[in-house]
Amino acid sequence: MISIKALDSIDMSAAPLPANWQGALDHIGPVQTVTPLVDRLSGKTTCATVAMIAGVVTWGAARLRPFTDTGFLYELAEASFAWQFDWRYLDTEVEPKGKPADQPVEVSAPMVLRSFVRKSIRGEKPWHSFYQPTMELFHMSSVVSFILPPDLRDIFEDWLVQTSDRLDALCAAPDLEVPDFADFENKQAYRDYCAPRRGAPVPMLALDPTIAIEADGLSDRALEELRKLDPRANRYLRTAEQMAALGFDGQPYGAT
Predict the structure, then answer these.
(1) Residues 145-190: pLDDT tens digits?
(2) Considering all CA atoms of the chain, what is the largest pairwise distance in Å, rounded to the nearest integer?
(3) Residues 6+ away with beta carbon under 8 Å from 217
(4) Is 172 helix (H, G, I), strand (E, B) or coil?
């Protein structure tokens, strides 16, 4: 098993990117089939699912780094963790943006990953949603598996499954009846009902199955990580002033 932090120590420059990359959406998973992997990735809270999305982005960034600038992917992964605390932390409308090109792979693949993150947690709606971005996680995982060197694909897939199982145990989504908005008195009542499905923030540390961590310690670890983030060093993180303008109440980034 390999940790997320160890990825940067692996030299992938000698393994060329796949020559059979067909296009931006040609290497995602099946779109009309619930595969065993989709089932495996399902069932966890939105925060846990988003944490896994950030982990997959990090795998993709490490693979593509010898061939292109992937700094924005690392920043996006980091900002995705902040999103778990409040949707206002993440600004997905900054560069680079736009529809992923089909070729070349070193240009297409990172933008495919970015587009799936954006689809998963853009704006306020996903924060209050009853549903988790499981299919986006699944499709991103398929893309990363395709571009990885053959000797790392099994390692990645083992990490994916073991991390998913670990988060299922720590952050299972409560089994609630699918809500009908019309049954609720107002928008806030609907959001309150859905909130347990979002769950509590999950720290980056939880993506390393080799490190023991208990459910009771997740929130404290996540807050420690949030306090270390710097919006001046990450294009996707909003400043305190920008968050206040969007209605954020209090001091962001764990400030007291």
Answers:
(1) 999 999 999 999 999 999 999 999 999 999 999 999 999 999 999 9
(2) 59
(3) none
(4) strand
